[in-house]
Amino acid sequence: MLCPQCNVQMFQRNKLGGGQSTTSFYETYEIKECPSCGRKVLEQYSVRVLSDEELKEYEKEKSA
Predict the structure, then answer these.
(1) Structure letter (DSSP) for residue 24
(2) What digits encode the pLDDT tens for the residues 1-37?
(3) Nearest residue to 29 via CA among 15, 41, 44, 14
């Protein structure tokens, strides 16, 4: 991730992070720090399985 303040690559701070995973959900997070300005952020990523109905709703929104 690039620092939104100074556009320098941010790095994970002190191995801080974690997450969880099941057959229908996946989530990870890391604390990132900019080596230039010291800005600290929480970076998150999540994934979940969609039902056919949920998929249809996203497709419907996209075509609207």
Answers:
(1) S
(2) 999 999 999 999 999 999 999 999 999 999 999 999 9
(3) 44
